[in-house]
TrEMBL record, chain A:
It comes from Chelativorans salis. InterPro entries: Bact_solute-bd_prot1, TAT_signal. This is Sugar ABC transporter substrate-binding protein. It comes from the Bacteria.
From TrEMBL, chain B:
Belongs to the binding-protein-dependent transport system permease family. This is Sugar ABC transporter permease. CDD domains: TM_PBP2 (cd06261). It is found in: Cell membrane. The chain crosses the membrane at residues 30-48, 60-78, 90-116, 151-172, 184-202, 238-258, 279-302, 341-364. The keyword Membrane applies. It is a multi-pass membrane protein. It comes from Chelativorans salis.
Amino acid sequence: MKVHIYERLMAIQASRRGILKGAAGAGALTLGATSGLGALARHAVAQDNLRAEILKIPGVGMGSPTDADWQRVGEMCLGGTRETVEEGEFEGVQLTFMGLNNQNLHNFLFRGFLRPWEQYTGARIEWIDLAQADYNPRLQQSIATGTVDFDMLEMGAPFEGDTAGRGLLDEMPDWVKTLIDMDDYVDYLKEPVGTWDGKTYRISIDGDCHTLAFRTDYYGNEEFAQAWAEEGDGSPWESPTTWAQVNAHSRFLAGKTDPLTGLPAYGFLDPLKITWGGFGFYFLADRAAPYAKHPDDPAWLFDPETMKPRVNNPAFVRAIEEVMELVEAGAYPQDQLNADPNTTAFQQFLAGTGGMLTWWGDVGSNARTSDTSVVGDVVGFSTNPGADAVYNSQSGEWEQTANEAPNNAYIGWGIYVTNRVSDDEKKRKAAWSAAAHLGGKDLSLWTSAYPSGFQPYRKSHFNYDEWEAAGYDRDFIEDYLSSNRDSYNHPNAAIEPRIPGIFQYYSIAEDELAKIFSGQYGSVQEGADAIAEAWEGITDQIGRERQIELYKASLGM
Amino acid sequence: MDEATARAIESDDFVAPDPIPESRKRLGRMVFAVGTVVLVVTALARLLQELGSFDFGFVTWRPVLYAYIFWGIALGWSQVLRRGEDGKRALFVLPAALFVVAMVVFPLLFAVYVSFTDWNLSALGGPKFNGLANLRRMTSDPFYWNAMLNMVWYILAIIVEYAIAFGMALILHSQIRARKFFRVVFLLPLMLSPVALSWMVGKSMMEIRFGPLANLARWLGWDNPAFFSEPWLARSSIMVMDAWTFIPLMMIILLAGLQSLPKEVMEAAKVDGATPWQTFWKITFPLMLPVSITAVIIRVIFKLKLADIIINVTSGGPGGATDSITSFIFRVYRDRSNVGYGTLLAVVYLVIIVAFLLALLNLLSRWMRGYDQEVS
């Protein structure tokens, strides 16, 4: 063991001992308690201290975390493993883990988090790193050709139909459920998400939703407010709550100067190079959901009885038309046709270009902690904008009523264990132990607070005091976290179906949307019809009856 | 050879192979037959199981591979038994030939089979034979024909690339200062991976906000240096990046050709008072035609495979303006898991490439014959 690591460990342990002593004393004095209650109190205080300690690594405003930080957090959060696994118990076990390497996150962090776990348990992990766009094909090919070569898998819930539906996953043991405290998950990540035929397969490590991130300095700018009063529609100069306002503000901002950078100001950043392995479709869905997701109807992408696509209904067409309206108004940054979602978030918005965008929670956690962000002090958050009308697919009529439908895009990443380990109890326990370590309650607080590719997904993540103590500005963190929490808990949230091949639908839609955005169709409706036709073809190819069955199941029908 | 001559040759003048006994030949035939039977039976049994007729307990196709290896060994052994020394010589070639059959012919046949199936990786049923449905779909697929049209433009760009490469080769062939240095420098782009090029040039240097090329363009008076937002501009940008990588390849081939030209002809032209243009057009260019054709054909083959730069920089956009057949197939196969249709597109593309190259070679050989006659 290296000296500095030893010293660090000693320092941590001393701190814990001190806290535990204090907790025991306090418990005895105030409660006159039984030893059981005393232990609980000690555990709670130690737990609180651990959460506070890990949030100091490396500290908000101290730059991006490094591998050393990830290892340190992994070591500090090893309590659950120590409780359930003997030291060296998995000696000789080799596991293969398949996951992503987006933005040098995901697997990069897992490696660091699991290194202390490997040292303690004796198991070794081999890594399969995939780019986001390569993930779906790699997974599908492994499944279809019977060459699943990984024991553990980082996977989104949309793929549960492809994996759990084919019996490729190992059911979660009960001790893992207790260890990771599944009750702490936000409600929308509980059953049926992560389960199949009543069996639980998933350890959530992420909760996904798109939220609106906007520049507070735009909306606090006197000049903009004055100009809006003169040129605008009479509404107050505030962050938008509907997509109509988003478009109005974007048209207004075109040609003005960004108060932070001095460069041209822009409004909303749609990723017009939408081809992104299927994931680009979510960004149109952000706009379409409040128009298309009627509160009385759980379905919004397909008719659940027939799998007839709704992507060419008036709601989706209106959403596409809104994008086209901004294209024609010249309201996007130059070269936006070549901007994919990574560009809009990391090269544009966080780098100071553009007034607002919808993205996953990474934008929030990166805004203050990433070295490349310049908007940390001038960014605000809300749930996705709503609509001033909603299309009722049952009646085929527009209803002129305000509607919100935050897009809980992708339902978050989870860790799954494949059935390759099912026959080897030692290996199986090792795989679930590693998965539980990654999905542990305390470690997840750290991943939701620092750049990791994951966002808050547990009720305990919404304890603002913890974030404030870690150095976050109270207003910022309340703003950011509440946008996530309100999206998860929204009664009309748009949740995608966990049906096989869902990304095939999205991918073909991206190709057609790219053509629509570049003006190759006579009308938006014509382009939307082409998407619908392609979707029908995919449904027929995969099997309509089975898709209907799974779609209904995913909607809880 | 008449009888008298044959008698005149002493028996120890050469080593005559030992006659191979009939029994050994019979054994050879038997070994081959056993190997063949094992292969055919194994393949048939696996096929019948695949078709659902019987269940022999196979889990994978691996037993067929083992049977193929066994058949290969039996084939080699039988060759030695039946043909003696000739058979031993055949052993030098057989492993390579069988390897090629295994790695090229079998997969190609399998690909042809897959291309006539309806096979989506997300469908539980696996591949289902669907006749010509994929072909019919291809004929009416606007994305495919759009990519095909783009390929025509990409191929035509080779004319310009060839002219530049020839010019550079001529420069490097002449007596210029630091010739060796420039030869190495001009070759550097070829050593770069197209993926690295995509990120270094397409995604960084041409990036509209901070890219040095964009800034240079702005300094030169271009207000909106968006290299990938207009269809023609995006296509041209892809062409330039691809050309930048592969012009050195053509250049080096042409330079090698120039260096092997007979000096006497050039000197004779000079003595006869030919101008530099006449020397080039009447002597250098015709003499370089065979090398030029080789360079162009190799370049066409590379161009037909163009995909990596497109996938990384534009994903085929804007609106399919930069899509190539290969990048389109990549999306169909990779993003949509549509194995049957994707394979059909690949097989058809292979046929088109072979037909195109044959036609091109044929045309060029006719043209060269006509050119030779004209010159003579």
